[in-house]
Amino acid sequence: MSMQTREGEMGLAWLAGESVRKGLAIHTRSTSPSPDLLSFFAPDFSLRSTEPWLLGEEIPYALPARESLPAMLSRAEPSSADFARLFEDVAARIRAGEFEKVVPMVHEEFEFASPLSSAMFASEFLPGQFSYGFQCGSEGMVGVTPEILFSVEHGLLKTMALAGTGIADGPSLLDDEKEMHEHRLVVRHIEGELKFFGDSRIGQTTERVYGALKHLYTPLEFKLDRVPKFEDLVRRLHPTAALGGWPRKPAVQWLENQTFHQARGRFGAPFGFQEGTRLFCVVAIRNVQWIGSYMKVAAGCGVVEKSQVLKEWKELELKRQSIFRALGVNL
Fold this sequence. Notes:
- The protein is of the alpha+beta class.
- The protein is 22% helix and 37% strand.
- The chain contains six helices and 19 strands.
- The protein has helices spanning 80-95, 177-194, 230-237, 248-256, 259-262, 309-326, and strands at residues 11-16, 21-30, 39-41, 53-59, 72-76, 101-102, 105-112, 130-136, 139-145, 148-153, 156-167, 198-202, 206-210, 213-224, 245-246, 270-275, 278-283, 287-291, 294-300.
- Strand 13 and strand 14 form a beta hairpin.
- Residues 1-8 have low confidence and may be disordered.
């Protein structure tokens, strides 16, 4: 896929992995998908985008020629002291029974000497992961995510619970009570939201390694007895307990009052496509977002009763580093 737009095009969108390779030359934004043609869904995290659908012409996916990042003018890193205060607030609310889990986040901000483009970031997918992104006008996002929100094809809905984080060569997460508890909350949420559509089958929980990190992974399948709409599935699943918290309503209410949440843009948002009856959507984590020459990189961590502030802070750092490595960014 050439990252150079042609006359009359607004930009490009893509999603590629071992099971899918789709590219779109964007011609317009829309409130709804095309009923038959490839349409990409790229809302913000809060799903308040008035025109979340990207419509245009399907094009082959191919890696672009790589361009260099412009000179960096400034970099603002997150504050460990600010995160510690945020963590204590979350911990107090968990002890008070307001929620069992919530997912705070931090982000770094960058300013460069000239506008950014998607060709400045590596977009090759890694085993078990998906390259995704779009560029439309002066804004864009590029990422590599391991997390599928949902896939619908041939009467079968597939999804996954992916939660709990550790260093790839560290102790088993399967033996970690805190990580397993966090993961079970995600499984519980997904099964509860999707049982409406058909009979479920929950697979075995295992560890999966993605670069320097590993996560707990549980596949879930639902044999559909009704045809779901793309945005109906988004509303039921997003944000899962892996990105929002549990129970979802009080966790999301807390998130919506936080400064970091209001500035998150598309980090953790659903991103995917519809093509006829085929639906495919990933969770937009491990990405960079930009507008013009301004860029931000975010990471989140699940906080539960047994969480420790220093361990969570380290996890946030490791996740941001993994983003830079995956996208070939050397800052």
